[in-house]
Amino acid sequence: MSTSSGAGGGAGAAADDFSKVVLMGGGGVGKSCLTFRLIHNQFLERYDPTLEDFYRKDNFRVDDELCPIEIYDTAGQAR
Fold first, then answer.
1. CA 36, 34, 65: angle at the middle one, nearest 5?
2. Percent share of the chain, pLDDT over 90
3. Relative to the CA of 62, which of 56, 70, 71, 74 has its CA 20 to 30 Å away?
């Protein structure tokens, strides 16, 4: 598993084999907290505002099938 700022890596899936997710919404609604919870299996109660972040999780599973994902966490100003 690689996190933050696009540094991917991984044995396994090629870049085209990843599901891509973009999180958009208002500022302060919890996009980064949900992303952190999904990637690290922890919940942050406090965090610094996000400028932009990119995460990649190679070992994400859906219905017992490997489904690697890339998540782009926006700054919350997109409309």
1. 80
2. 5
3. 74
CB 71 within 8 A of CB 39: yes
Alpha helices in 10-56 (DSSP H): 31-40
Q: Note every long-range contact of 40-46, with CB atoms under 8 Å and residues 24 or more positions apart, other chains counting.
A: 40/3
Token code pair at residue 36: 């952190």
Dist. CA 70–CA 57, nearest whole Å: 7
Gap between the Cα atoms of 14 and 71, Å rounded = 16
Per-residue CA distances from 8 to 25, 40, 47, 70 (Å): 25, 15, 23, 9
Q: Provide the whole-model pTM.
A: 0.62
